[in-house]
């Protein structure tokens, strides 16, 4: 029993080692502006970067960032390559099978981006024979495969969203399903987005699209959850989330219902 207790104690110490050092390692996929990307100087920037730094400050922790593709973030978290996923990851029942989450921090609708005046609709019937691009490992990928692919719509998955935008421009895909803020800031507001726009209304399916965006945590990491949830409460109460949303997502209500 003493040996078992010692092993369990060592495991607990290992899980808390980042906080003993006062550091929180975030996992991030840095190809999804305005949530996270690198600027011309090679520095990380975006809503989630500013939010993550604010939450670390509220929790009196030092932030560091570990980059990877979006679909590699959950495996990386489980493998302890970092302590929390901070990469616009929606909280869903499917993901809860593998990881835990903080409380929801904000919410962004998902919407289709395509050629203006194309006549497409964000429905199985309105996308018949079309090809839709999605980010690999995203809830938009899950939604498109569940609601559209089964009805004759081709769904193509990309390692990062910039690849989908490139294929939309060269005509390899007809539209891309993304979080609306990413579509606006990452494509439509740029010169290459001229002639494109949102197609129809935001899509809806709470089971797939989730209850909001939070930080992904390892299963059973109650200490990290408690510390980050308290910090999230602080940055919500002092208006930080509202200010950052106004900066990065003007006109979009990000509040968690």
Report what the structure shows.
It is found in: Cell envelope. Belongs to the bacterial solute-binding protein 3 family. This is Transporter substrate-binding domain-containing protein. Keywords: Signal. Pfam families: SBP_bac_3 (PF00497). By secondary structure, the protein is an alpha/beta fold. The chain is 37% helix and 18% strand. It has 11 helices and 12 strands. The chain has helices spanning 2-15, 17-20, 47-58, 73-78, 93-96, 139-147, 161-169, 180-188, 206-209, 222-237, 240-248, and strands at 23-28, 37-38, 44-45, 62-67, 84-85, 100-101, 110-115, 131-135, 154-158, 175-179, 196-199, 216-217. The protein has a 5-stranded mixed beta sheet, with helices on both faces. The chain has a 3-stranded parallel beta sheet with strand order 4-1-5. Strand 2 and strand 3 (44-45) form a beta hairpin. Helix 3 (47-58) crosses helix 10 (222-237) and helix 3 (47-58) runs antiparallel to helix 11 (240-248). The longest helix has 16 residues, at 222-237. The model is unreliable at 1-18 (pLDDT under 50).
Report the end-to-end length measured between terminal Cα atoms: 47 Å
Mean pLDDT: 91
Largest sheet: 5 strands, mixed
Strand order of the largest sheet: 9-8-10-7-11
Q: In terms of quaternary structure, what is this?
A: single chain
Helix content: 25-40%
Structural class: alpha/beta
Characteristic key phrases:
signal; disordered N terminus; single chain; 37% helix; 11 helices; three-stranded parallel beta sheet; alpha/beta; Solute-binding_3/MltF_N; SBP_3_CS; Transporter substrate-binding domain-containing protein
């Amino acid at each position: 029993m003493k040996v078992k207790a010692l092993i369990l104690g060592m495991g607990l110490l290992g899980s808390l080692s980042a906080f003993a050092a006062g550091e929180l390692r975030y996992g991030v996929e840095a190809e999804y502006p305005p949530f996270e990307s690198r600027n011309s100087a090679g520095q990380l920037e975006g809503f989630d970067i500013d939010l993550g730094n604010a939450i670390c400050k509220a929790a009196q922790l030092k932030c560091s960032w570990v980059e990877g593709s979006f679909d590699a973030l959950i495996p990386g978290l489980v493998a302890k390559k970092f302590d929390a996923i901070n990469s616009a990851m929606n909280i869903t029942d499917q993901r809860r099978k593998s990881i835990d989450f903080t409380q929801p921090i904000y919410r962004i609708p998902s919407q289709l981006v395509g050629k203006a005046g194309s006549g497409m609709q964000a429905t199985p019937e309105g996308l018949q024979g079309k090809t839709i691009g999605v980010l690999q490992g995203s809830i938009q990928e899950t939604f498109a495969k569940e609601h559209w692919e089964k009805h004759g719509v081709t769904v193509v998955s990309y390692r990062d969203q910039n690849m989908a935008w490139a294929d939309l421009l060269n005509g390899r895909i007809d539209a891309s399903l993304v979080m609306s803020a990413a579509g606006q800031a990452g494509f439509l507001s740029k010169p290459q987005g001229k002639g494109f726009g949102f197609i129809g209304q935001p899509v809806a399916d709470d089971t797939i699209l989730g209850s909001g965006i939070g930080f992904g945590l390892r299963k059973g990491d109650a200490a990290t959850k408690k510390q980050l949830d308290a910090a999230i409460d602080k940055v919500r109460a002092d208006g930080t989330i509202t200010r950052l949303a106004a900066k990065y997502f003007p006109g979009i209500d990000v509040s968690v219902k």
